[in-house]
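ok here's diacylglycerol O-acyltransferase, seq below lol
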Amino acid sequence: MSKASAAPAAMTRRDYAWHRMDTERNLMVINSILLFEGAVDMERLVSTIALRLPNYPRFTQKVEQRHGRPHWVEDHAFDINRHIKLEQMEQDVSRADLQSHMTRLAHLPLERDRPMWHMTVLDRVNGGHAIVFRVHHCITDGLGLVHVLNHLTDDNGLHGRTPSPVGHPHRATVAHNAVCSAVARGISWLKIAFHVSRLSVLWPDAHSRFKAPMTGEKQLVWLPPLDMERVRAMSKRMGVTLNDVWVAAVSGALRKYLDEHGQRPDGRALRAAVTFNLREKANAFQLGNEFGLVAVDLPTNVDDPRLRLKQSSARMTAIKRSHQPRATMAFLSIAGCLPTALQHFALNLFTSKGSVVLTNIEGPVSRRYLAGSRMTDLICWVPQAGKLGVGLAFISYAGQIQLALFVDTDLVPDPDRLMALTYEAFEELQLATAGEEAPQSSTDLAGTGALAAGS
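and the structure came out like this:
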């Protein structure tokens, strides 16, 4: 490989916290699957990945301790063939079989003596092929991962050796926000300290089957995508964001699921940890983790879908105006300075306050091609830290929205049912808001730019 070795770089405390966050019951790995048309050309695929992925130094570096601090250090034994594996299927793979393969791979820890990512290529999937792309969360968050995917792929099937210069990590420059005054920064840090303290003493949410001890047995499921225009039209009618619709739909699904399992949904609300992007989108090429988690009381105790949507929007708007997202990002940085045992204790204390993780990621806006093959679907599952064992993800891609669920099966033994209820909750919201007229003064809050792309 002609790429020059990158110099060792100190790891941020926040990324180090993610690096140490793995447990036997929860691996901190972002799992994604990319579905493609046509047969796979492994030589062309491996050549493309080998040429483009090392443009991000993190994908050829491993984590080592240097002078008592964790550093990103070049792996001089790096071999692309140790990171890309072809699994040849004996027959065409059904959706159920593909979910089983995803679940099996999601249980496998990534090797720590090398860069912490891996691709498994599956042939004979839905008349084409699939790539299971697994990246440890210490490398990047969801927004960074989408930047990587855009760089690996092309906007047409002509596939040249050279990737597009648009957003190329070697050409991109860091975008800076306007600098606050020292007094304003001081006030912000005081508010952040207040929110960290407030979150640490927050009462746990309603007790439910989602808060039982975890076994570590996971399952990943997904459904056919939703048409983004349908969801966007609904959000415009109600003057809310796509993220608000997502939160309201999940709330309805969780309510119905608990009701079907004999638990009263009309008491205290369930609380979710919702990811909130804090990075300038232009800086996604830097990778790393630049997001906070916000604690949101979901309106799971509200029966009316329109009222659930209004409450979801009001609560998300209030949090966006607060310092809570920055407070939780600061909390992760502090956790990265603690001994491992104390980090796990602090994380368990924080995650015990909620029941589920919700995240959404703004994926590529147009169809992408990898090594000449057209990508038809992009699905992503993010890990759940600490005591959280239920995670729902929402990712946009080329005019469609893909819903995905990642659960501990002791908490949700029938994840397909919860996934189906989430799909039905979108339909319920659409019917309930069909007669609503869009607010005359509303701006396009529902565009994909309103997505709070998270982990």
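fwiw The radius of gyration is 21 Å. kinda neat tbh
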